[in-house]
Amino acid sequence: MSARIIDGRARAAELRAQIATEVGTLKSEHGWVPGLAVVLVGSDPASEVYVRMKGKATAEAGMAGFEHRLPSTVTQAALLDLIARLNADPAVHGILVQLPLPPQIDEAAVIDAIAIAKDVDGFHVQNAGRLATGQAAMVPCTPLGCLMLLRAELGSLEGRDALVIGRSNIVGKPMAQLLIRDSATVTVAHSRSRDLPGLCRRAEIVIAAVGRPRLVQGDWLKPGAVVIDVGVNRTPEGLVGDVDFEAARQVASAITPVPGGVGPMTIACLLANTLTAACRSAG
Ligand code: GUN
User: What ranges make up the beta strands (E) of 63-209?
Assistant: First the structure.
């Protein structure tokens, strides 16, 4: 079998075009546009790239972008002060603090200082709790993008065996919650799981989000599985995912490439969350 390659770039482009149309309508009919503030602390090269891509996507969607750069030596108080100002700014509908933050900063305290209605990353403890308890929540962008790709590929996820590899607050945990909400049967594995190949072989859906280059082998997969690779690992051979793509595509029925799979969906979902936040604030 040769797997269908899931084109995240194309799906993301469709979504971004839809969002741009809605932003255009808001602007022409109501005279305002959604605004997204992105906060970058320090100069981590990967974070710089992500922030630049997010800023570009915001502008292309017709939204207002506000970029705030702070030195890596910034104090917690100064960062919290900036967030308080963004919370109070009516032109800012979404706030994103790029992670990771330097060691002197309490990451959880910073995330939880963001107004939950402006928390377009969905990382605030109240948004995480709302998602876990089935209430309306701002949903983290990467797992939301993965869910959209899965639904497009499979239709209903009801009753399907899904394996999430990774238990981070950003991807693994919210991914598991979203799959449960869609009535999948969900297993969450991680670096300490005992029999990862065995767990994989039982899964119709594998979502790899552990940050270990090419961890998931082709012969770990159930034939016909749908594989979503969230990994972005920089190696001497270039950017690779958490899945051995060449081997996996011989076994899977569909698989996301790296790059061009999940990454573009994350950015499209960030714009979608910003538009949602903006519309809610107006309503
Ligand atoms: N760092 C890595 N991924 C993310 C993300 O989705 N949002 C933010 N804010 N920081 C990140």
Answer: 64-70, 94-97, 161-165, 185-189, 205-208
